[in-house]
TrEMBL record:
Listed Pfam families: ERAP1_C, Peptidase_M1, Peptidase_M1_N
Domain Peptidase M1 membrane alanine aminopeptidase: 188-413
Name the record gives this protein: Aminopeptidase
Any one annotated GO CC term: extracellular space
Subcellular location, principal: membrane
GO biological process: peptide catabolic process; proteolysis
Organism per entry: Astyanax mexicanus (Blind cave fish)
Cofactor, how bound (note): Binds 1 zinc ion per subunit.
Subcellular localization: Cell membrane; Membrane
Length: 796
């Protein structure tokens, strides 16, 4: 493979030279050429090479160190007014070939011997040599382990670093801009990395095979982070944590990202998928176990439960669409770099993670981990397909009672898209499954080898008692009744703690019994299940499988709820209603309803924070606090409006001494701007114009969109077209945020229609799909549909 490299031809006019080593005789080169389309350098030999002989292929080439975020690329930043350049790499999935010619496929593992010759920046390993009359340094690296090309990385920089004490087993270093390191922004990462590495060493029962683990924060970085073996690269916001200005959400992100990349050191790096069609083995795995890693270092966060929101729910949403795709695709469907890149998506990450969580739940974690360990041992430094994993798990399964082999169970989850909705009729004990599609009238876009039937592990409880797991193996087969599910007055709850990747529907009586239980004593139902009841109900209602009024009744008990997960689940669905009805005559009633539900939570949190002055110790309560304040302000509660306005005023009076805790800023200020007028808006706008910090600028870009004043929103939209006003990289955000605001939505739509050609011409960063999606996503009527079809089409 070779892409965007310019070769110096040999005297014979070839791109390469071939020499035999250790007595081997190299065949002559007939012809060499570049296949630009498929990114190959072709070397045609007069004879075939011989197995067991060693040959040396030599090439001289040049590439541009462009700031294109791919292959070997350039990144820039300013330090004390001086421009600094960083040369760094991003190979995955198919850009190692843009750094050097290579066999750029995950299964073609090799040992890399690398020597870099670079400008004489201060580095700790140095040999000075002279090259083209310049004094340069030469850095020679130890040979790598046997590894895939997409995991190779090297960075040349003037960064500083911090490191673990000399006596530690594995040397851990955090690299970043000198000022960031001096400010202590790498300290948090350093404090958790070694512990997470230790956790994975024992979870996988496999030693980290390198003597060191470097992690580096880069200004210009396309993904969130990249698991290069021994030198993990991160976007700055994914590695650096500033205890003063970062929020607990930021801390969570840094922790999960680090855990995710460290998980790859085994799953991905030591054992690699054979080809990209099984990318989910890499990414789904890292996604799942990253939550275990974070849980180990932050046991009070309840992060394993949060995974259901961040991964499972996201996957449900994506995978209930008829255009979804199976986790593992046939190899033929994944050939070109574009097809490979398209696989880094919600299915691969979130569904992959959720399905593995299900597998671990029904096998139990110790058995699952034992299987992984055996798998890693057998396939270390090699490549695998998913059946290798099923095979190993099958071997260690031991006493776990299963209705079929692991591969029979799991193939149904990974070789067909979608997931089932399980319907339980407690009047008869009947239990059935159907492919769940959010649009009940749609048909899946591809056929399935298993006819959209799954082997579903049904964990369930009856009136609060956990019952034996039941396996639902058919759609409507003979065994479609399970007698214990038949009840008179007791409620049945299935998929306890969302341990399976499916939704559940019940007969009306059982729904009613669940609702009663929620109202009388919700604590009998586990917290994740409470969140799930709400989410299932709303999604079933949207798919016309139950009445929306039933879904709404799952919210009745919320006045008693203090936990974050059910609230978050409810708020996601409530927002749809809030946006639909804000400008209708039912708004006042809706606001009243909202307040009646959130008032107790609001006051509870207000109390335990001594009138919002003290920081909550609980991670999820901090999120709760934001939800409660947002909702109370949406409900128009004076207490809340006055509070946010007052906070905002304090900030305006003293911009340098901001009294609001960072994790609360976006919510508080957004509501402050919404409750305020042009003075509040101007204040934030002036700060944006002066802002130098990325995170601060993004916060301001968001809160500016929160005003309810059309003239300000229009002004904001107009500024967006002027790069002197709104920075180009923020243009997408402006459209998105303004369109998310109920007042702003029609304005954004009118604006982009009127200015479309301008937007396209000026704004390289504005993407067609994002813009169209965000400006129309709240449309819900026939009239609006016609509007998009008619006006939308003329504009493009
Ligand atoms: N291997 C990926 C990085 C990657 C993503 C490379 C897309 C090429 C294309 C890495 O392990 C990863 O998954 N990073 C995530 C962050 C993670 C915390 C989910 C990312 O970059 O978003
Ligand atoms: Zn990953």
């Amino acid at each position: 493979h070779s892409n965007k490299l310019n070769y110096t031809l040999t005297p014979e006019g070839h791109h390469a030279k071939l020499t035999g080593l250790e007595g081997a005789k190299a065949p002559a080169i007939n012809k060499t050429w570049l296949e630009v389309e498929t990114q190959y350098l072709v070397i045609q030999l007069s004879e075939t090479l011989q197995v067991g002989k060693i040959y040396w292929l030599y090439m001289e080439f040049q590439g541009e160190l462009a700031n294109d975020l791919r292959g070997f690329y350039r990144s820039e930043y300013f330090e004390d007014g001086v421009k600094k350049v960083v040369a760094t790499t991003q190979m995955e999935p198919t850009d190692a070939r843009k750094a050097f010619p290579c066999f750029d496929e995950p299964a073609m593992k090799a040992v890399f011997h690398m020597t870099l010759i670079h400008p004489s920046v201060k580095l700790n390993i140095k040999t000075t040599i002279t090259l083209r009359n310049q004094n340069v340094l030469q850095t020679k690296f130890k040979p790598t382990l046997k590894m895939s090309t997409y995991l190779v990385a090297f960075v040349v920089s003037e960064y500083s670093s911090i490191r673990t004490a000399a006596e530690t087993d594995v040397l851990v270093r955090i690299w970043a801009r000198r000022t960031a390191i001096e400010a202590g922004h790498g300290d948090y990462a350093l404090s958790i990395t070694g512990r997470i590495l230790d956790f994975f060493q024992s979870y996988y029962n496999s030693k980290y095979p390198l003597p060191k683990s470097d992690q580096i924060a880069l200004r210009d970085f396309d993904a969130g982070a990249m698991e290069n073996w021994g030198l993990i690269t991160y976007r700055e916001t994914s590695l650096l944590y500033d205890p003063i200005t970062s929020s607990n959400k930021d801390k969570e992100w840094v922790s999960t990202t680090i855990a995710h990349e460290l998980a790859h050191m085994w799953f991905g790096n030591l054992v690699t998928m054979k080809w990209w069609n099984d990318l989910w083995l890499n990414e789904g795995f890292a996604t799942y176990v990253s939550y275990l890693g974070v849980d180990d270092v932050q046991p009070t966060w309840n992060i394993k439960d949060l995974m259901v929101m961040t991964e499972t729910h996201k996957a449900f949403a994506f995978d209930s669409n008829k255009f979804s795709h199976p986790l593992s695709l046939p190899e033929e469907e994944v050939k070109t770099p574009a097809q490979i890149n398209a696989l880094f998506n919600t299915i691969t990450y979130s569904k992959g993670g959720a399905v593995l969580r299900m597998l671990s739940e029904f096998l139990s974690e110790p058995v699952f981990a034992r299987g992984l360990s055996a798998y890693l041992k057998q396939f270390a430094y090699g490549n695998t397909v998913y059946t290798d994993l099923w095979g190993k798990l099958q071997e260690v399964r031991l006493s776990v009672n299963l209705p079929a082999t692991i591969s029979e169970i799991m193939n149904r989850w990974i070789l067909q898209m979608g997931f089932p909705v399980v319907t339980i009729d407690t009047r008869t004990g009947n239990i059935t499954q159907n492919h769940f599609l959010s649009d009940a009238d749609s048909k899946p876009s591809r056929s399935s080898p298993y006819n959209y039937e799954w082997f579903v592990p049904i964990s369930w409880m009856k009136n609060g008692t956990v019952m034996d797991r039941y396996w639902l193996l058919e759609k409507n087969g003979n065994d479609s009744t399970h007698d214990p599910l038949k009840t008179n007055s007791e409620w049945v709850l299935a998929n306890v703690n969302v341990s399976g990747f499916y939704r559940v529907n019940y007969d009306p009586q059982n729904w009613q019994r669940l609702l009663s239980q929620l109202s009388t004593d919700h604590s009998v139902i586990p917290v994740l299940s409470r969140a799930q009841i709400v989410d299932d109900a709303f999604n079933l209602a949207k798919a016309n499988m139950i009445n929306m009024s039933l879904a709404l009744r799952t919210l009745s008990y919320l006045s008693e709820e203090r936990e974050y997960l059910p609230w978050q689940s409810a708020i996601k669905h409530l927002n749809t209603f809030i946006n639909r009805f804000r400008h209708t005559e039912v708004n006042t009633k809706m606001q009243k309803f909202l307040w009646s539900k959130v008032q107790p939570l609001f006051h509870y949190l207000k109390n335990i924070t001594a009138d919002w002055t003290e920081i909550l110790s609980s991670h999820t309560n901090q999120y709760n606090q934001l939800n409660a304040i947002s909702l109370a302000c949406t409900a128009g509660v004076e207490d809340c409006l006055d509070l946010t306005k007052m906070w905002y005023r304090q900030w305006m009076k003293n911009p340098d001494k901001n009294p609001i805790k960072h994790s609360m800023r976006s919510t508080v200020y957004c509501n402050g701007i919404a409750a305020g007028g042009s003075e509040e808006w101007e204040f934030a706008w002036n700060l944006y114009k002066k802002s130098v910090d990325d995170a601060e600028a993004e916060l301001l870009i968001y809160i500016l969109s929160c005003t309810r004043k059309p003239e300000l929103l229009n002004r904001y939209l107009n500024y967006m077209l002027d790069p002197n006003m709104v920075q180009k990289k923020h243009v997408n955000y402006v459209i998105r945020h303004v369109a998310n605001n109920v007042v702003g939505q029609p304005l954004a739509w009118d604006f982009i229609r009127a200015n479309w050609s301008n937007i396209l011409k000026e704004q390289k960063h504005a993407s067609f799909f994002t813009i169209l999606y965000f400006t129309t996503k709240s449309f819900s009527t026939e009239v609006e549909l016609k509007k998009v079809c008619k006006e939308g089409l003329t504009m493009f």
